[in-house]
Design goal:
Layout (H helix, E strand, L loop, with lengths): L1 E3 L3 H4 L9 E5 L7 H17 L2 E8 L3 H4 L12 H10 L4 E6 L2 H4 L3 H12 L2 E6 L13 H11 L2 E4 L4 E2 L2 E2 L2 H9 L3 H8 L4 E5 L6 H4 L5 E4 L10 E9 L2 E10 L11 E6 L10 E12 L6 H16 L2
Helix pairs in contact: 6-7, 8-9
Length: about 300
């Protein structure tokens, strides 16, 4: 997959060398099943028409500019996670536009002319049911249809994907995760919700009760799940391990200031401090709680582990 971080890279090419593209535009946070409909459509058309399957996305997420107070604990996926999903789905080209104040002031018509037509030579634009763009969110399906006739490209509007009365959306999945509904979140994502990070050298308190853990600090921009115990799968250097995880403030050990992911990997006894770990959340087991003694905590952890191992 070709990765482009500046549109000037394309604009500086002669018009004749700008390959025709099948394009979609959006944040694609989580790249959930609703997004997958759109992504699959652009790859399908691109393959049929011998064009470039192209995704135009933004970094940082626009919420950081427009609603910075809501940007913390917000994103379902980091940029790296999102790009990996794009690669796995056989996207030819991902374009990352720095989302800043200047870009947000670009009118909808200028966006169509300068970016879609001049830079990307779009021939098919695939959009979701709620696509809005341009300064003051003035761009919509009606404007796109008018301008597509002027510039000679096609619009394909993908209907919302629903489960019962709910539309699959990033907002719905965020709500699931915050409320411990991990199975529902994973179903809507089409994959397990995952956090990634570097294993930190903690206080090794878990060893004192017989359950050593790999500790990961929560990233401020990634959504945090409900405090509690989870059945998880840990991936280290490409190998998957069954595991159990506590996420929270460790109240029994006199609470920490920032929430921490503590992953106990079954049948594992290797030094992985400083290594990257990916942890997929599979199911919510119970809420985090403060125990009256370490013995009570140890007993409950043994029960939790037995429950996960029996599944």
């Amino acid at each position: 997959m070709q990765l482009i971080r500046r549109l000037n890279h394309i604009l500086n090419q002669p018009n004749g060398k700008r390959q025709e593209s099948v394009l979609t535009i959006g944040n694609f946070d989580g790249a959930h099943l609703g997004h997958a409909q759109i992504i699959n459509k652009i790859t399908e058309i691109a393959h049929e028409k011998n064009m470039l399957a192209t995704i135009l996305t933004f970094e940082p997420h626009p919420i950081l500019l427009f609603k910075p107070d809501l940007a913390r604990d917000f994103r379902l996926t980091s940029l790296a996670q999102k790009l990996k999903i794009f690669r796995d789905k056989k996207i030819d080209r991902a374009i990352i536009i720095p989302f800043n104040r200047d870009f947000s002031e670009l009118s909808a018509k200028d966006f169509i002319k300068k970016i879609l037509v001049d830079a990307l030579n779009v021939k098919y634009l695939v959009i979701g049911y709620d696509f809005i763009f341009g300064k003051n969110r003035e761009g919509n399906l009606q404007l796109l249809e008018e301008e597509s006739k002027r510039y000679g490209f096609n619009i394909i509007n993908i209907a919302a994907l629903k489960k019962d009365a709910d539309i699959y959306s990033s907002s719905l999945i965020r709500n699931y995760i915050k409320n411990g509904k991990i199975k529902e979140a994973n179903q809507a994502l089409g994959a397990n919700f995952a956090i990634e990070g570097i294993v930190n050298n903690g206080k090794k308190l878990g060893r004192t009760i017989g359950f050593s853990t790999a500790n990961i600090k929560a990233k401020p921009h990634i959504i945090k799940p409900k405090f509690g115990v989870y059945q998880v799968r840990a991936n280290i250097a490409g190998i998957n391990y069954n595991a159990i995880m506590n996420f929270g403030l460790k109240p029994t050990f006199s609470s920490v200031l920032e929430p921490l992911y503590e992953v106990h990997i079954f049948d594992f006894n290797h030094d992985i401090y400083g290594q990257k770990i990916r942890v997929e959340l599979i199911d919510f087991i119970r809420e985090e709680k403060k125990f009256g003694s370490l013995d009570d905590l140890k007993q409950q952890i043994a029960i939790d582990v037995e429950l996960v191992l029996s599944r």
